[in-house]
Description:
Distance between the termini: 54 Å
Largest sheet: 5 strands, antiparallel
Helix content: 40-55%
Number of strands: 10
Strand order of the largest sheet: 1-2-3-5-4
Order of helices and strands: HEEEHEEEHHHHHEEEEHHHHHH
Structural class: alpha+beta
Oligomer: single chain
Number of helices: 13
Radius of gyration: 21 Å
Amino acid sequence: MEISIPQQVWEYYGLNPANYQVSRAASGHINQTFIVLGKSLEQLSWVVQRINTQVFTNPGAIAQNIKLADNHLKKHHADYLFIAPIPNRNGELFSIIDGHYWRLLPYVTNTIALDVLQQPLQAYEAAKQFGKLSRNLDGINPEGFQATIPRFHDLEWRKEQFDQALSSADEELKMNASVAIELANQFNSIVKDFSSVKHNLPIRILHHDTKISNALLDKQTFEGKCVIDLDTLMPGYFISDLGDMMRTYLCAYDENEADLAKITIREEYFSAMLKGYLSEMGHILNATEKTLILFSGKYMIYMQALRFLSDYLEGSIYYPIAYPKHNLDRSMNQFHLLGQLYEKEKILEEIVSECLN
Length: 357
């Protein structure tokens, strides 16, 4: 069923729909997102979203986390562009209409959200923006922040989910996925490594979804402006943000590419991404965190491979698929990317060393 913006939403924010041109956001959003452009220069433009409460079961946690971060940033970094929701006429960050959660966000003009990285500069600028958010939130009291998706990046739990999916999977699915299952077991040491280091990592307030389309860049120069989609802003370890950048920036193709020969790591993008991130976080990360920079990529890529494989074994009930083996192909894509990370480990560690010095 086609979703449109209810009249009550306009009323909650004192807006006249006749003054705006409304379109659906092109791609890349869990939530239903609308671009609301003013028809005249006098009218500001906005983004309207309906939250996907099947994914985000506690919208109140999202509102609380964003409010705490916004208060901190206004006090300590007043000039930072933080895309927080606009309070409605009741002072609330969400407007509940027929059981659905709606919000209004600022629209940042003359910016673009890319789906694919086309040059290293874009990797640098996007990573710099995510690093800047983490730097500006460094020192904030994590008390009061909640997990908006519980155990979202808990690798130990994701491995448990995989083991459960494997134990109850249909025999035909297990046979089809035999190579991927073998790879899941082959790289299991990543879970053990995570278990041994996580207690030495500080809890930080992080974005947790650092794909390129969540960074707004200037349309002409690609200078980074800000980050968006703050629903997963919550406590975690730095390896979540940096690792997800590695997972999504280093290859020219995303996880939907089934031709594994195309899944290669672009070293120049790795260098640009890391330089951008460290330009903001280099003096914030502690000594232990700096030793885990490359591990962060292994951690996130392996976790996503497990999630795709688990979903395949469970009958593809979570990720939308275009064909029956889609999630299996996605998992193989991620396992291949992980293998590339190990294959180029020495070269990438040299880049890490150069970027830290």
